[in-house]
Design a protein that fits this description.
alpha+beta, 7-stranded mixed sheet, single chain, 3-stranded antiparallel sheet, Aminopeptidase, about 260 residues
């Protein structure tokens, strides 16, 4: 079972399924496999999820020195620092190895899931997703306060998503974006990503409005289980998802070698 804090634990099979859905929902440019380590690299966009080694089997922990060095060289070739993303699928021996070698821990995130039929998706105002990916791209850059230099990389990520994606935007009367959310319907799974609200419009219920609208959209497309992830220090996000009825499934954390700034 995965360690999940106060909520009931989920099986490793569920963790594997949500990890795979997460990879499909936010795809890396390149994915290499060293045994069951998924080495994800995206030179055009710096997100940690897209540039990290993801161990996917708790028994895969042989030749650690050799394999970690090979990963370091692969990351160095594209100018990225080596990062591991440690989920419950990571070998305990590998985690202990990183601990003993002084690797830092940062960016802890919580993966939530929910039975969509059991959570509160009050009707509110149903918003139709936009079909203009470029418009969503520009809105996401503004709302997340990302520099314009990341436009090509984010565009590449959004264009690479293979499961059906739905883009949601809230705008002010002048058409300026205030909030964004991305819904991915992957068979019976609904992933909610890229949720953000501009600072000046927070605490007005916009995030809840977009998330519930996005989830209702995925239910109409056949989704039955919702999932999303949020950084563990994002108190507003944690509170919102708990109130909606999501429960913690598992956590993951990033690991960086000594001397690597994070």
């Amino acid at each position: 079972m995965a360690t999940t804090g106060a909520d009931a634990p989920v099986s490793l099979a569920v963790v594997r399924r949500l990890e795979a859905a997460g990879f499909r929902a936010w795809p890396a440019t390149s994915t290499f496999f060293d045994g069951t380590w998924a080495v994800r690299l995206t030179t055009s966009f710096p997100a940690k999820r897209l540039n990290s080694v993801n161990p996917l089997d708790r028994s895969d922990d042989n030749r650690l020195d050799e394999r970690i060095e090979a990963a370091r060289l692969r990351f160095a070739e594209v100018g990225r620092p080596l990062l591991f993303r440690q989920s419950p699928l990571c070998s305990p021996r590998l985690a202990a190895y990183l601990d003993e070698a002084g690797w830092s821990r940062f960016g802890e995130s919580v993966v939530y899931m929910a039975d969509l039929a059991a959570i509160d998706l009050d009707p509110g105002v149903d918003r139709i997703p936009i079909h203009d990916g470029q418009r969503y791209l520009e809105a996401s850059l503004i709302v997340h306060e990302r520099p314009a230099s990341l436009r090509p990389g984010l565009e590449e990520v959004l264009n690479s998503i293979r499961p059906p994606a739905a883009f949601f935007i809230r705008e002010d009367e002048a058409g300026a974006p205030l909030a964004v959310a991305l819904a991915i319907t992957d068979n019976d799974l609904a992933g909610i990503l890229d949720v953000a609200v501009v600072p000046a419009a927070r605490r007005r219920g916009m995030a809840r409005d977009l998330v519930t609208t996005a989830l209702r959209h995925t239910m109409h497309r056949g989704a039955r289980t919702g999932w999303l992830q949020v950084e563990a220090d994002n108190e507003a996000g944690l509170s919102l998802y708990h109130k909606l009825g999501f429960r913690e499934a598992y956590r993951y954390v990033y690991r960086a070698p000594p001397g690597v700034a994070v």
